[in-house]
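User: I'm writing a short report section on ligand binding and want a predicted complex to refer to. Could you take this sequence and 3-methyl-2-oxobutanoic acid and write out the structure as tokens? A short remark afterwards would be nice.
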Amino acid sequence: MKWTAAKLKAFKGEKKITMVTAYDALTASLVDDVGVPAILVGDSLGMTVLGYETTLPVSMDEMLHHTSAVSRGVQNALVIADMPFMSYQPSLAMGLENAGRFLKEAHADAVKVEGGAMRAELIDSLVKNGIPVLGHIGLTPQSVKEMGYKVQGKTSEQARKLMDDAMAVEQAGAFAIVLECVPPELGEMISSALSIPTIGIGAGVGCDGQVLVFTDLLGISNKPVPKFVKKYAHLNGIIAEALTAYKNEVEGGTFPDDEHTY
Ligand code: KIV
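Assistant: Sure. The structure tokens for the complex follow:
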């Protein structure tokens, strides 16, 4: 059953929503095969796969390339493309054109944009033009130079502002919203106040769903991860062991053996 943004929205209150990032057809098919309903082609691509320090250098061409690959690997999950830094900030027209490219050229089902009330006009315009939108507030990595990688919404004034932002994103027509790095009480308050699902990442168990980065949850990278990451596996050790065994056998002349030779 192919997931749509409308189905995901209607899932609120039925069952918690799982979302995972993926960046290519292989990893997307692994996520899709276990029945995860939503895959985010996050601009975290920049750090996880492309070797950048932040998400800021990620380009439209890179996102289109990886989103197309994810779409090819998926049968059922909703594919959400993250709009990269400066692909929507300069103007509504640019945001609309670039969001449209994700659906037309990369076969995404929806796009994600960072920002609250300030993005309401853009979200409204995308939705009215047939492009489902996932919002994203709290810690928004494209604003790292301005806000750093810090928990957001710790003071009552900041919490009120995030609640207003969440309401504005919902009213503008987003089908769901990512809440990143906010105190769990605020995550729960926003989740109860909204009629669209909240997808938490470092926002506590009170959210309607959770998202994690593929390479983080599988422990593929050996770089430090934020506190909110739970590693469900430690694949880096397994990969290093296999690669070392292969290298040793090649160097020792024991691979290929008879079993692996025609
Ligand atoms: O880019 C990304 O992967 C994200 C999620 C972590 C929410 O924005």
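A remark for your report: The chain has two domains: 5-231, 235-262. DSSP finds eleven helices and eight strands in the chain.
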